[in-house]
Amino acid sequence: MNILIFLIILLVLVLVHEFGHFFTAKKFGIRVDEFGFGFPPKIAGIKKGETEYSLNALPFGGFVKIFGENGEDSVKVEPSQNTHREGSTFTDVDASRSFVNRPKWQQAIVLFAGVFMNFILAWILFSVGFMSGLPTSVGNEAKGQVLENVNLTVVSVLETSPAFMAGLKSGDKIVSVQSGQDSLSKIDPETLKSFIVAHPDKEIEVGYERGNNIQVAKVTPIQNTEQDKPMIGISMDMIGTAKLPFLTAFKEGMTLTLFVTKGTAVGLYTLISEAVRGQGSLDSVTGIVGMVGMTGDAYEFGFVYLLSFTALISVNLAIINLVPIPALDGGRLLFLLIEKIKGSRLNSKFTNTANAVGFGALIILMLVITYHDVVKLF
After folding, report:
1. What per-residue string of b and e applies to 272-289 under the rule 16 or more CB within 10 Å gives b?
2. How many C-beta neighbours within 10 Å does residue 378 have?
3. According to the model, what pLDDT value does residue 192 have?
4. Quick one: pLDDT at residue 282?
5. pLDDT digits (tens, 9 = 90+) for 159-188
6. Could you tell me which residues are beta bridge partners of residue 183?
7. Strand partners, 53
8. CA distance 8 to 110
9. Residue-range domains of the chain with CATH
């Protein structure tokens, strides 16, 4: 089930991204040859006008094939068609509708449109989440807003920690804490920290709510060498449900989208800069295997969590696509900027080779990250 949900999310995100390219290309009169659902081999296809809409076997997203995106501005056609001869080559009557023959600003909009659509999708999903009841940290709620069902919630769990070994996960709501005859009547971050400090080396029963189920995790604190205090290995926050009216939800959805975008961009920059300095680590990077597990966790916690998770992935997809690496939209935008500065096109063989190399490097990186995900499971 987790794999199916993840594939559906991935399909939606990629199709929304590709629809941005498709829609803007059509609006500018650029010829779109194919809009594919999934990746080849092709199962079936139907042609409407000049565009073929295909259904393909690999359900990992989709693609748009735009005439001229790889540098071609003419194709050979039969002499019987409405053509004119240039030397020994017949030039397609649609040459003026080639992507590379359109103004640079139109090309830039078509390239950026996919990323823009991912931001729009994230905004819509966050907004729907606020209308349905989105988990919000106490202190981060909108002015005048009252949070409902406020609980101490696990934000993250340190791997190999007592909490991790006991099965606690991000999103768990802590509803009871007890050790022997001692228990907490008021549960918040400070009282739980004090309770842990007061019970070093003693088993603590942590009652938590996950989905609609109440479970108990038995943890024994260990010494935190940095702070010289007992710890169970979780970060936590008081989180409640923010349910907003329609217009306010869209306003707060935009604010949250911008906040997540900034955080994602900063995190990616930090990751890349550390890698350049030789200090990078894959511990903070999650691949397909890890994403499937996170999808299952979000689904288990509820529909609103799944919406928020999808919105987060959408923002991440947008930010990553803006990185100026060949094969990504950011790389194509970089080539476009270079062409604008130099006043002429780059050699299509060079750009196509660079994009192929970039795509190959991304595939290798994905395989390495996936291998790292699998290793972490054992």
Report:
1. eeeeeeeeeebeeebbbb
2. 4
3. 93
4. 61
5. 889 999 999 988 899 999 999 999 998 999
6. 178
7. 35, 46
8. 25
9. 118-133+243-378 (no CATH), 148-242 (2.30.42.10)
